[in-house]
Amino acid sequence: MPPAKPVSLFYSYSHKDEEYRDALETHLAMLRREGCISEWHDRRLVAGEEWDRGIGEHLESAGIILLLVSADFIASDYIWDVEVKRALELHKSGKARVIPVVLRVCDWNSAPFGRLQALPKDAKPIKSWTDHDAAFTDVARGIRKAIDELTRGSRPTRPRTQKPPEPEPTDQTQDSLESLLARVRVLESEVTALWVEVNNQTGEAMQRGELTVSQEGDQPRFHATGAAARTNWDELYARTRAEVEAKARQSLAILERAEDIAPESTDVLLHRGLALAVFKATAGKAREVLLKVVALIDRPKNDEEQAQLARTRLALAPIIGNPEAAETLVRDARRAYAELGEDGWVRTCDNALAFLQASTAFMPVGHWRIDVQTMGMTSVWDLVFAPNGSYQGMVQTMMGTMPAAGVWGYDPANRLLQFQAFDLVRIFITGRQGNGWTGTDHVASTFLLTRLP
Q1: Ranges in the chain annotated CATH 3.40.50.10140
Q2: Burial tier of 158 (Cβ tally within 10 Å: 0-12, 13-18, 19+)
Q3: What stretch(es) of the chain map to CATH 1.25.40?
């Protein structure tokens, strides 16, 4: 039921975010048509009106003040010193409700309004949503709820989750936990943005056949051709990992405080597992924590838990230690995200699958020991296959040790490695064996290929 009088809504925003404000206005159309709100922002100033006075009057009369948060919003001296300061005074006195709406990723959690319940859900920046309409709809619903509370004269309440709330000692503690998790989610959204950008680039290059990846120890090594060769993929991966690790350390520091409040919270455990998974040294602990989350959720009862389980499986995949299990986890996560309509996460899963399949497929580039069995006789080849198609190394037989060098080629469709040694060597890769690969020439020889550091 609409209020007897529309609630006055004031937009505090940077002009650089005008397109977001316009989109939000569009999504508030139903509230406007129902007579629930009357809106004002500085573009409503008429010619000849004193802009400072006009802004001040409408700010003072507002029932709801929306802070459209971005780096440009925070950087504006007028917004910060005048609008934000007065808005928070009005909020504290109970004359208005201040609602931060996070538009773009920025460092806002330590701001004076950082402890207020923000929109959209989990304070995830609108720009980070794969579906902006869904983000703005979530904001509109949050504003509708605030209007209902104001017109009923009730005190603000925290949004109810779809799963049973976990016991917390006090309301103050709950607010503290929510604030801590909100800060972690912002860091995670920044991490996700970094990895999604890299995964999309590598996935597209792999699909074009211009990029392959091999594993050297615990580090991926990229081999590019064509247009993809213009990118230094090893440097891009290393730079991204360094940024991700820095943000993961920040998350772990915040989560230590969250664990003191709710050590068995599924949310806290999930976020801790995600942060630990970033570091190879803590991969085992991350696996333990994430498997515990899987056990706690077990069978998802709602969309929120299904999304949590999908995120957990996706995080487990690269640290599970088994290529087949990793692929199954990613496929399960993809299926869940598809059911939830999360197209962005579906694409992320597709790219993760491409990366997994590429990194677990046989790629000749690198240093290899090849054990050869031919009619009861054994030889050992120590060869380095270079990305430019050349190879060199040593071949040890019953006759002694001899140098070897030449050119090589690999046909992935037929899994056929060929190179010229004493004669043309043809190795059909037949499968995995431990840390190596098996092969045959379909005549008299079998091969065991082991990648060396």
Answers
A1: 7-159
A2: exposed
A3: 174-360
